[in-house]
User: What shape does this take?
Amino acid sequence: MTPDPAILQAIADGKPVRIFLPLQNTLERLRLNCLCRDIAPPRFSLVFSPGLLPVKEIDRQQPAIVSVDMGGPTLSLEALIEEIDGPQVLKMFLQKSINHQQLREFFRIDAVTEVVASGLRGALPGEPTWSMPGESLDMSGSGILVLFAQCPPDDKQIQLSISLPLTDEQPILAIAHTVRVKHQDDGRCEVAYHFDDIAMEDRDKIIGHCLILQRKMLRLKVQVSGR
Assistant: This one.
């Protein structure tokens, strides 16, 4: 698919962006801040602070994901690393953009982790009206599917506390609304949530986590098929 050059032309020269950088011999991707420069579609450069770029560890066979805050929707780009130009510059070639729906599908990964849903307004300031633990079935940068022992209250918006299993960081907090509900025969309930309000940093953590799991699954699939 030929990328639309207008996608890059909408990005101001020198704009701060984030990259999910593939590394050799690891499933993890490194999240770094950098500047987008020298935009000449479908090519552009990413400039990093001194000492930040792990040049010898970069996996140039894998595409990188570049996340651009456009002052509203986040623009996500998949791009190949054409050249490592010294210790601070990556020269990139745009492969495609990932829109909101594609972003959910691309990063939606089966992932089991602890999730707590709660009401937003309680009797006391900061106290939820209700709280219910559950576990995720899959997640993405825009939403999560959660399994509960019983169906939670049908509030217009709720708060989710999500513990990412591969990190020791504090749980991620997000305001979300219900997309769909599925009742199971044993009384349990699957609820799909869409994130309405989540910090960009936290969304990046979820996407980064999903990328790690995605690469694990792909590697396992290659190992199984190669037997």
